[in-house]
Amino acid sequence: MSAISSSFSFGQIMNLIKATSQFVILTVVFSATARADAVSKQNFAAKIGYCQDCHGVSGQGYRGFYPIPRLAGQQTEYLENQLRAFVEHRRTNNVMFNVAHNLSPAMIRALATNFRHFNPRPLGGAPKNLVTAGKKIFEDGVPDANIVACAACHGPDAVGKNEFPRLAGQIYPYVVKTLTNWTSERGQIPGKPDTSAVMQPVVHSLTKSQIEAVAAYVSYLQ
């Protein structure tokens, strides 16, 4: 340890440990999916690198003018369904359609499994004065507006389950944008309904301030 310490700073050592841990996770995930679905290691590395260019090396997402969602820790089944939704035009996003329509089912599974194993700290940055109101809506809903508690589907810790997505740690402006634009981006083929249909009555009933409050609350959860 003394030899390492003399060559690297503490910060560099921690970054090295983090990078090594991520590599181990990638290797384990790839090995499991490759055996089952015959995804080549080279193709997998290329695709995961492409995803990380936008979603971050740990899938943490980005705030900014055009927020990019956190994929880290997301439910595998949910990610698989959303990638298929882009291809089938059930969900509108030209960038993601161009990405997803070239992915094989095996590659989709491998990528979804990979991001499921990441767990970086939330980026935060949401207005903290909204968190208390958001917590109440998440846990109790809005009975007067017939809005069910978010926790009913997403779980008490907002980590989701199966086809219901993880909201914990999700980027604040991304959640606001998604809920605000829900009806123009999700469930675009009525003949192919999916779990997005569950959210239709909710987003119609939530006010702008309620959306912002819920988004602020979940963005700080780990």
Tell me what the structure shows.
This protein is mainly alpha-helical and 222 residues long. The chain folds into two domains: 113 residues, Orthogonal Bundle (Cytochrome Bc1 Complex, Chain D, domain 2); 102 residues, Cytochrome c-like domain (Cytochrome Bc1 Complex, Chain D, domain 2). It is 59% helix and 0% strand. It has twelve helices and no strands. Helix 9 packs antiparallel against helix 12. The protein is globular and about 50 Å long. 30% of the residues are buried. The N terminus is likely disordered.
Q: Descriptors for this entry?
A:
single chain, Cytochrome Bc1 Complex, Chain D, domain 2, 59% helix, mainly alpha, disordered N terminus, 0% strand, 222 residues
CATH class of the largest domain: Mainly Alpha
Structural class: mainly alpha
Radius of gyration: 19 Å
| Major sheet summary line | none
Mean pLDDT: 87
CATH topology of the largest domain: Cytochrome Bc1 Complex, Chain D, domain 2
* Overall geometric form: globular
Distance between the termini: 32 Å
Helix content percent band: 55-70%
Q: So, CATH architecture of the largest domain?
A: Orthogonal Bundle
